[in-house]
Amino acid sequence: MKSRDLAAAIVFAGLYAAGVIALPGISFEIIQVRVSDALLPLAIVFGMPAVVGITVGTFIANLFSPFGPVDLLGGTLTNLVATYVGWKMARNFVFRGSWMFVAVFQTLLVTFIVGSYLYVLIGVPPTPVAGVVVPGIVFSWLGVLGGSVISILVIGYPLAKAVARYLVAEARYVR
């Protein structure tokens, strides 16, 4: 790994961990908005440095999780898969909207994996919502989905597009 890539990975790790540790009240519950997950789509732009950095940052952040080793390993592996597969998908599926497709994939991956193990850890009972009883697992998925949509799709996807545009524009002036 080049020193520039290593430096980028360290920055990603620090940003991810700091964002989670600074906002524990919204980062570690069934209904959560893990703002640091906005970094996941940046794996499309930066590749392996983002994959490594976000994975390490997730591990560091989840050392503070009230859900212990399951969240430490589960969350870390989830973000490893979401960033790595997202990066590879973006490289191999080049079509209009492919980045959005990747961001949606990352959102669903985080939703179903994290939502499932949080359901098991917490034991969410069936919950009435607007007069309808929602099974605990579905409530857990919906709680994680809402936050993942905000962080990955609403914040992260436009961030990745903006950073990519900036890097392309910068490259024109560097020559």
From TrEMBL:
Domain of life from the UniProt record: Archaea
**Upper taxonomic lineage:** Archaea, Nitrososphaerota, Candidatus Caldarchaeales, Candidatus Caldarchaeaceae, Candidatus Caldarchaeum
Transmembrane annotation, as ranges: 6-26, 38-61, 67-87, 99-120, 132-157
Tell me yes or no: is Membrane among this UniProt entry's keywords: yes
Coiled-coil intervals in this record?
none
Keywords tagged on the record: Membrane, Transmembrane, Transmembrane helix
Q: What name has this protein been given in UniProt? A: QueT transporter family protein
| InterPro entries cross-referenced by the UniProt entry | QueT
Q: Does the keyword RNA-binding apply?
A: no
Instruction: Write down a Pfam family by its short name.
Output: QueT
